[in-house]
Amino acid sequence: MLDDNPRPQKRVRRESLSLSPPSSSPLTPPPSSPVPSTSTSQSDSPLRPLPHAVLLLSLPSLLVHPPSHRYYIQSLCLSLCSLRKCLSLPALSPEIECRAWTGLAELGMKVISSGFSQSEDHLWARGIEAEAIIAQKHPSLRVFSHHIALLQVQFSHWQHKTKFARTQIRNLIVSFRPTDPPYIVYSAHLAAITLFTTPKPRSTPSTLHTEFKPPLSPAYNQSPQDIHAALSAIQSLESLSRTQGHTRVTLLSHVLRLRVLVAANMWNEVGNAILLAESALGLSYEAITTPKPRMTNAKEKDKTEHPSTETTFISFEDALESAMVVHTLIMTVVYFTHIGSAAEASPRLSHLHALLDSGALDQFAEGIIEISLPDGPPLSIQVTHPRILFLLAFLVSSVAKRDAVGRKPKRKVFASEGLTSWEKEMDFELLLPSWANFGDVEEVEQRLARIKADLLCELAAVSIMRSEFDAAEEHLAALIAHTRTYSIFELFAARITLHNAHLAHALDHGARALECYRIAVRLAGADNFVALSARAGEIILLMGMQAEGLIPNEPPVNKKEVTSVAKACRGMGGTLEAVGHVLDALVSPEILKAKQHLKASLELASRSQDNHLRAVVLALISAHYFHTAGDHALSMLQTCSQLAAGLGAPPTKDAPGILPIVGNARLSLWVGQKFLGE
Fold it and tell me: Where is the composition biased (Pro residues) (predicted)?
């Protein structure tokens, strides 16, 4: 009879309890085990203690943290102590000693660039400059000679030894042999380009009061010799990549050339560089024709609102291509906006938005891209941080959309959304690679601060255009507070003064406007965009006030000065070029020449979709046709009246509590007087 509740069977012993050592290896299971047990055998095996030198050398890689981490300073301090202790041990092997000195040099550069060596709060970092120099010159580092040479070049640049650093990098590039790994050769060429496009570090104290502080961002006022040297270095990089058959490095060289040309304001050569970069990326666009044709019936309107085929843009799965195409599109939109071609800028801006919406920036979240090379390790390059690119897209979109007419002008929408996104992005942790330093964090923060200041400038400008003067004053107050908070007021002082001049000019405060215009000219310095804008505004205001007899004490406007300002405006982009034609028309002694200048100005304003300037030019042109072509003059006045009313349209139609639409009141009043024959 079977038992319903049998006793459990005893567990079978599968391991020997013999205390004698096994004859086989400790990792080999005993013969009595039918089934090997990996976990058991590994747990029973004795662990050998690491040599002190190996343990100390490995600690920095285990303690490494990005600069945004709360224990970043502690990790640097412990890593330095570990390497110093390792180098103090006797009888080190050549390999360990070489790696320890290299690590000490790299850590020393991070400490110096972060400013800890010059800070009284970080005594553990004092004297690291001498250690970094000794580490770079130690005889045991011949194996890492190329890598150490690049560190020496960077350190010399931080010490304001610009000529010495450039000589070092030239000697390094010449010393390369065909057997050297490609990644170190390309790194040297990129370092040379950086030296030619980056100015000397600032001598002013930063938040950490460091002397050897790298610049926060590249300055674009380099000498022509440095710019041509940088372009020559880029050409060498491109030739080398073509010889080696590395097409991805060739693509990088195309984007680098475009960046240098845009930064140096060499607009005459930017067009060819754009063609090369877009061709390498496989991009092609068709200019959007504006204005759109008027709908004649409901069927055509329905076809337009519901097209059968939608516009599609090419997408990129590779991180390098995604980064290069985002950089290229941003610079091309800036270029076509500068020359006043809205039809060319619009499709590229749409492609940029499509890429950002598809998550293209997520492919290089830390701003680091690796270019795979067939021989040797990959080439790691640092690109603009994705957070900067994301917010920069809002700024570029706001600048590219020049039209301020309508209920929700895109210029205002993009600027407002950019500020909202800026505040949201500040709540998220900044992703940076583990080898970054505090200088990289400060650079990203400073660039983001400048982007927000630019967005506030755009909001202030569009508010003045739309006669929203209370909003303009609020934006200017926020702009001043923001720039002072981030210590960048000096960079924006001229622009802030120019915006105040435009605001006073629009409010008919002539004396204050003249004073602000003249101060803006002095603050801007040379004949740049801000200085020429201020000089043009001062001249136009003076001519108007003198015509009305409001300033009898002011000397009359010098026609030679007006002509010189107009001539200087012609090479400063579509907007200032149109203003220059207006100045020429105001002082032209012949009506025919004045009409030609105003016609050229109207064409530039229409091509750039700047309806604010277009309304003013239409008003000036109509004055020349009152006695010769009355119907044509009335047609232009009607268009001018519509544009003036649109410069202040409320967000919604028939919104409660909204006063009647006024728009540009002074221009509308002038147009009404002309309609009445006054």
Answer: 23-34
Strand, coil or helix: what is 369?
A: strand
Per DSSP, the residues of 580-591 read HHHHHHHH-SSH
Amino acid at 522: R
Give Cα separations from 212 to 56, 129, 345, 416, 450 (angstroms).
28, 9, 41, 38, 23
- Residue at 651 is within a domain: yes
Q: Is residue 643 part of a domain?
A: yes
Is residue 646 in some structural domain? yes
Q: Are 449 and 457 in contact (CB under 8 A)?
A: no
The secondary structure of 455-477, three-state, reads HHHHHHHHHHHCCCHHHHHHHHH
CA 153, CA 144: separation in Å to the nearest integer?
A: 14
State pTM to two decimals: 0.80
Specify the number of domains making up the chain: 1
Q: How far is CA 456 from the centre of its chain?
A: 17
Is 588 contained in some domain? no
The one-letter amino acid code at 329 reads L
The pair of three-digit structure tokens given for residue 139, joined into one six-digit string:
């005889």
Count of CB atoms within 10 A of residue 138's CB? 19
Range of the domain at 655: 610-678
What residues does 630 pair with on adjacent strands? none
Interval 26-71: pLDDT, tens: 333 344 444 444 444 445 557 788 888 888 888 888 888 888 788 8
Integer Cα distance of 37 and 29 in angstroms: 7
- Render pLDDT for 108-123 as a digit per residue (tens, 0 to 9): 777 777 777 666 666 5
- DSSP label at 554? S
